């Protein structure tokens, strides 16, 4: 059967728009608040090598699988998998890939929008000069005070969600492509500016050593799990975002080289973020940390001590916000495309409904930091940490595993061969071994180890 060459939702104008869109999805909070720190903690340069190994052996193959499946079907992930199942007479059970991905997208977006809202709040705080010359205690209290105020948090959460929905409602070309065209170059420029600032802050040597000196003693079995989990989350794999974007990719672009470029861009941003952040932290005699503590206490505090700190602080939080919004829009795409296809509904209506749904879900995350801070869903997991755990540690790896197996065993060789431009021969065999054995085993190991609580 002849395949669609266009998606009904629109198409990226060219291959580079696909690269920017997928890189926009990949570059997010994971690059800025997680990667630099886990690198420093798990052996520096040694961890970077480990991480690159995970990207090469698991991340890149699974991303290729998502793109090729999406481009072959040219529908939303759910319907793409459905169509391919019908065409190739494979088990209807594979459609779980699409459903679980859509659900994971809702869950991740619900808390992603809350945290991105914090970054918006901090743009204003930095611009006000609220952190100029303050003490560590002040920075801590300021953050805790903010977390204790659900109304303020909901306000910023609402602003971020509204901006996201406004963009996605306008469609692939007018909405997504326009936003990505502006945000991605802006993000790269801001990053380079901050990198220059970090290099000249006086703490560069220490920051560089923290991230890159080879420290094999700090590499543990757990580091491998962390590297793999990070490779997965940071490349936006396992929930169909990249599959949905792949459906809008021009037919003649090479999947392999495009995916490699995206993975390199994502890694570059993660490394550059670390080299921008840690020198500033060390220059002010502060201790590096990760997550909310790094981003919303240590960094504002460090900027507050620096010349032009307010300005560069604004630049930093604008960077975080841009990175977050280009990830957020990709989290909605599998659901939007599916609902438009299934109900022939107007995209803007569907976007508003999805936005409201995720916004309401996000209230649970907001409350997890104040009124519900002591309410646990299971063991010591609050609403927020529970959603985060289930989506990131269970749904994404499981989704990625199924995607790899689907590409390897449910699709005929001819389909994969023509999408990847691989005929018979050593490269075709290599692909099959990587996507059918190495990547699934890698994901499975991490998945089981995480569930058993080793990671
Ligand atoms: N890759 C994003 C980050 O690093 C998170 C994300 C995961 C986005 C899955 C979309 C899908 O922050």
Total strand segments: 0
What name is given to the CATH topology?
Amino acid/polyamine transporter I
Shape: globular
**What is the number of domains?**
1
Oligomer: single chain
Percent of residues in helices comes to over 70%
Strand fraction band? under 5%
**End-to-end C-alpha gap:** 45 Å
Provide an overview of this structure.
The protein has 455 residues and is mostly helical. The chain has a single domain, classed as Amino acid/polyamine transporter I. Helix 3 runs antiparallel to helix 12.
Question: Could you give the topology of this structure?
Answer:
Layout: H1 15-26, H2 29-41, H3 45-73, H4 77-88, H5 96-128, H6 136-147, H7 150-169, H8 172-199, H9 204-212, H10 221-234, H11 241-246, H12 255-283, H13 291-305, H14 309-343, H15 347-368, H16 383-410, H17 413-420, H18 426-451
Q: What are the defining features of this structure?
A:
single chain, globular, mainly alpha, Amino acid/polyamine transporter I, 18 helices, binds phenylalanine
């Amino acid at each position: 059967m002849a395949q669609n060459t266009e998606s009904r939702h629109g198409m990226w104008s060219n291959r580079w728009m696909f690269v920017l869109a997928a890189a926009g999805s990949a570059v997010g909070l994971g690059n800025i608040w997680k990667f630099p720190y886990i690198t420093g903690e798990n052996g520096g340069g040694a961890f970077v090598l480990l991480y690159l190994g995970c990207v090469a052996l698991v991340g890149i193959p699974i991303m290729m699988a998502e793109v090729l499946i999406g481009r072959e079907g040219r529908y939303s992930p759910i319907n793409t998998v459905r169509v391919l199942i019908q065409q190739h007479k494979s088990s209807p059970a594979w459609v779980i890939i699409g459903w679980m991905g859509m659900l994971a997208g809702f869950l991740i977006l619900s808390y992603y929008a809350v945290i991105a809202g914090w970054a918006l709040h901090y743009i204003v705080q930095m611009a006000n000069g609220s952190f100029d010359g303050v003490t560590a205690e002040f920075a801590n209290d300021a953050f805790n005070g903010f977390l204790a105020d659900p109304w303020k948090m909901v306000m910023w959460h609402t602003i971020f969600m509204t901006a996201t929905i406004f963009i996605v409602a306008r469609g692939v070309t007018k909405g997504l492509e326009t936003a990505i065209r502006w945000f991605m170059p802006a993000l790269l420029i801001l990053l380079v500016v901050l990198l220059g600032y970090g290099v000249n802050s006086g703490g560069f040597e220490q920051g560089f050593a923290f991230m890159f000196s080879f420290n094999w003693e700090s590499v543990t079995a757990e580091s491998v799990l962390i590297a793999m989990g990070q490779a997965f989350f940071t490349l936006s794999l396992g929930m169909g975002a990249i599959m949905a974007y792949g459906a809008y990719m021009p037919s003649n672009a090479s999947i392999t080289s495009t995916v490699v470029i995206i993975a390199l861009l994502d890694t570059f941003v993660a490394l550059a973020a670390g080299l921008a952040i840690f020198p500033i932290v060390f220059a002010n005699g502060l201790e590096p940390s990760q997550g909310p503590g790094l981003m919303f206490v240590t960094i504002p505090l460090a900027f507050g001590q620096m010349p032009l700190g307010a300005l560069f602080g604004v630049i930093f939080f604008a960077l975080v916000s841009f990175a977050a919004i280009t990830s957020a829009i990709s989290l909605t795409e599998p659901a939007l495309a599916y609902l438009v296809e299934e109900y022939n509904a107007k995209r803007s209506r569907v976007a508003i409904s999805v936005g409201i749904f995720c916004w309401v879900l996000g209230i649970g995350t907001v409350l997890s930091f104040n009124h519900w801070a002591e309410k646990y869903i299971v063991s010591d997991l609050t609403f927020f940490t529970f959603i985060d755990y289930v989506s990131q540690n269970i749904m994404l790896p499981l989704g990625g595993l199924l995607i790899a197996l689907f590409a390897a065993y449910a699709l005929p060789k001819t389909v994969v061969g023509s999408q990847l431009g691989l005929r018979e021969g050593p490269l075709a065999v290599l692909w099959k071994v990587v996507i059918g054995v190495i990547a699934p085993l890698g994901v499975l190991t991490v998945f089981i180890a995480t569930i058993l609580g080793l990671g």
